[in-house]
Write a structure and sequence with these properties.
three-stranded parallel β-sheet; 3 helices; mainly alpha
Length: about 170
């Protein structure tokens, strides 16, 4: 503030407040918006050009003195009438909010579907593993039975010797 008069400091403050009111919301954006709404495309030619350079979709309120081909989505209306601007922006905000709600619903449904698909995949994998385990058990049982047969076949056959019993002497 050194070297500036009170009037200059006051004017700088006013200019700062004006710039903040225009650009403060832009500074807080996490990234580029997907679309830009422009009221009075004829007066805001720079905004239209910048939006096209950035690859943004443009929605514009187009009056008779504007070219509707300058924007991607033209809304024919009087861009000087406050009532018309309020009406249109109210509808745009409502549509945006409705889209946000629908997007959240779709996102939740997609997450639920993903969870269901993941659960189905886990169930299928569990069934496959159980089937493999059953096949292995059956193969092991068959192998064990064959091994028992081989062992029995290798064992010498037991012969039973019958003792002759002598008849008891009677006296």
């Amino acid at each position: 503030q050194k070297g500036y008069t009170k009037r200059e400091v006051l004017l700088f403050g006013r200019e700062r407040e004006k710039l903040l009111s225009f650009y403060e919301g832009i500074a807080d954006l996490p990234g580029l918006p997907s679309a830009l709404v422009i009221i009075g495309t004829h007066h805001e030619r720079t905004a239209v050009d910048e939006a096209h350079k950035m690859g943004l979709d443009t929605v514009g309120i187009v009056d008779t003195n504007s070219d509707p081909r300058d924007v991607d989505w033209a809304i024919p209306s009087n861009d000087d009438a406050v009532g018309a601007i309020e009406l249109i922006t109210t509808y745009l905000v409502e549509a945006f909010e409705e889209g946000q709600i629908q997007g959240e619903k779709n996102k939740q449904k997609a997450q639920e579907d993903s969870i269901k698909a993941e659960k189905a995949a886990v169930d299928a994998e569990n069934k496959r593993v159980e089937k493999e385990a059953e096949i292995l058990r059956q193969a092991q049982d068959k192998t064990t039975k064959e091994e028992v047969k081989k062992v029995k076949a290798k064992e010498p056959k037991k012969t039973t010797v019958k003792k002759e019993t002598k008849p008891a002497k009677s006296s």
